[in-house]
């Protein structure tokens, strides 16, 4: 019998039909939707006079366009208000569970799935959002889809897909002090580039990955898409099972035991072959910061920005001009204006606890605007219950209500033109956080350190 990768096992078990010389019809276990990529899909169903095939396998929330203050009031922005109202009407009409504004389960779609126990190993999961790859941290196949594909899944609970190639990325060794999973993934992208994993589904493995919490694993899988991968995944283990057990929609009793027995089989067979493999040493990774306009343009925080070498560096030249930076110079000490801690990459309770621990008893720089946006109502409630809101507030950080917020310029939380923002989000494209905004991606610790000092700082100098 041929040895299989984890990816092969899950993919092959979900193939409903093979189309000769074409794609495969893949069954989808869980479909997440939000207000931005679903309206046209529902309109398509309505025009064809058909319903949602399996509404109980679809979960909806409002996250991208929602405000992060005064969520109990009507949304001021007309387009955002229309999108959220349309989602509400569509879910009512088609019988889909909606965690809308005010609901205790509302939050960023890739935060609420795991924290509610909806995301589980061995599943196929899709959403009209590229960072659906987050859910792969639980040992499943999760990927973003387009609006026409959202309609396809609503109508049939299946999707037509060509099977991607497989890739193994192995990271081994202990992490240095102050280095987080965000630094791991930014380091890998800086080495492989934003197109280095195109056409592949990545399995992350190795002793470093195995040592990470589930929240840290989600950060890594979240940004697998930024390497050009179709998605990323990590084999489930005791850390995974302990995280899921007891959550709101997790299986219980005999059903838990039955599913656990299956989950424990979800690992790559010894001797299984990947199409491509890479290996990295955790010893080589330090806190990372991006200097350019894609997530692959990152360096260790103590290292200089790459120097421009001739015409072949046209992209680097353009990026540095946009960012107002000079090649060959070190970023340490570079003044910043905003800090954003949030997004589906780094807005979980573990992220907020780390930031609170670092800023406890300190004050942010006067000129820095520091926003902390929890990933869900549950994260917000837990942060307040633990007193993190008081620690953060005393340090000058503003803890708001959940949403995608300043990750993308699609709501009210935009970074002004020309201002520098150290952000825990996943993308630093031109204008991503607002027209003309200059984004530097980093871990929650590096972002918090920059807020305290008002400049790019090596957080290791602030740690015991």
Can you describe what's shown?
The chain is of the alpha/beta class and 464 residues long. The chain has 3 domains: 6-161, Aconitase, domain 3 (2-Layer Sandwich); 165-284, Aconitase, Domain 2; 304-462, Aconitase, domain 3. It is 31% helix and 17% strand. The protein is built from 15 helices and 19 strands. The chain has helices at residues 6-13, 39-48, 78-94, 109-115, 147-156, 181-192, 207-210, 214-222, 238-244, 253-263, 314-323, 349-359, 377-385, 388-394, 444-453, and strands spanning 15-18, 24-27, 30-33, 58-61, 97-99, 124-127, 141-144, 158-161, 165-172, 200-205, 231-233, 276-281, 288-290, 298-300, 338-341, 369-372, 398-399, 420-423, 438-441. Strands 5-4-3-6-7 form a 5-stranded parallel beta sheet. A 5-stranded parallel beta sheet has the order 17-16-15-18-19, with helices on one face. It has a 4-stranded parallel beta sheet with strand order 11-10-9-12. α6 (181-192) packs parallel to α8, α12 (349-359) packs across α14 (388-394) and α12 runs parallel beside α15 (444-453). The radius of gyration is 21 Å and the shape is globular. It starts with 5 loop residues before the first helix and ends in an 11-residue tail after the last helix.
């Amino acid at each position: 019998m041929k040895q299989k990768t984890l990816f092969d096992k899950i993919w092959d078990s979900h193939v409903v039909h093979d189309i000769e010389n074409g794609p495969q019809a893949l069954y989808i276990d869980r479909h997440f939707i939000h207000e931005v990529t679903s309206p046209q899909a529902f309109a398509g169903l309505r025009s064809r006079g058909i319903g949602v095939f399996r509404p109980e396998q679809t979960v909806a929330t409002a996250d991208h366009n929602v405000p992060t203050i005064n969520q109990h009031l009507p949304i001021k922005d007309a387009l955002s208000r229309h999108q959220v109202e349309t989602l509400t009407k569509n879910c009512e009409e088609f019988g889909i569970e909606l965690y809308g504004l005010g609901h205790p389960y509302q939050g960023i779609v890739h935060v609420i799935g795991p924290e509610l126990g909806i995301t589980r190993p061995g599943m196929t999961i899709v959403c009209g959002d590229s960072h659906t790859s987050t859910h792969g941290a639980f040992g499943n196949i999760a990927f973003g889809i387009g609006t026409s594909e959202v309609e396809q899944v609503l109508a049939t609970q299946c999707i037509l897909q060509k099977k991607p190639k497989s890739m193994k990325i192995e990271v081994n060794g202990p992490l240095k002090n102050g280095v987080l999973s965000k630094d791991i993934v930014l380091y890998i992208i800086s080495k492989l580039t934003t197109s280095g994993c195109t056409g592949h589904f990545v399995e992350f493995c190795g002793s470093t990955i195995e040592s990470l919490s589930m929240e840290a694993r989600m950060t890594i899988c979240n940004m697998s898409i930024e390497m050009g991968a179709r998605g990323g995944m990590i084999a489930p283990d005791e850390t995974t099972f302990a995280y899921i057990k007891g959550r709101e929609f997790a299986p219980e009793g005999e059903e838990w035991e039955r599913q656990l027995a299956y989950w424990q089989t979800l690992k790559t067979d010894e001797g299984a072959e990947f199409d491509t493999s890479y290996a990295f040493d955790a010893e080589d990774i330090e806190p990372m910061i991006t200097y350019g306009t894609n997530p692959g343009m990152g360096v260790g925080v103590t290292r200089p920005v790459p120097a421009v070498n001739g015409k072949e560096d046209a992209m680097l030249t353009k990026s540095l001009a946009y960012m107002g930076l000079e090649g060959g110079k070190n970023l340490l000490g570079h003044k910043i204006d905003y800090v954003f801690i949030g997004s589906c990459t780094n807005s979980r309770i573990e992220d907020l606890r780390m930031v609170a621990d670092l800023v406890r008893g300190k004050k942010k720089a006067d000129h820095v605007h520091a926003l902390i946006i929890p990933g869900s109502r549950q994260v917000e409630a837990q942060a307040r219950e633990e007193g993190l809101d008081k620690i953060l507030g005393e340090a000058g950080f503003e803890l708001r209500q959940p949403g995608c917020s300043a990750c993308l310029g699609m709501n009210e939380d935009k970074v002004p033109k020309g201002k520098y923002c150290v952000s825990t989000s996943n993308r630093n494209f031109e204008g991503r956080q607002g027209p003309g905004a200059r984004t530097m991606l980093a871990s929650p610790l590096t972002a918090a350190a920059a807020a305290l000092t008002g400049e790019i700082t090596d957080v290791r100098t602030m740690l015991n």
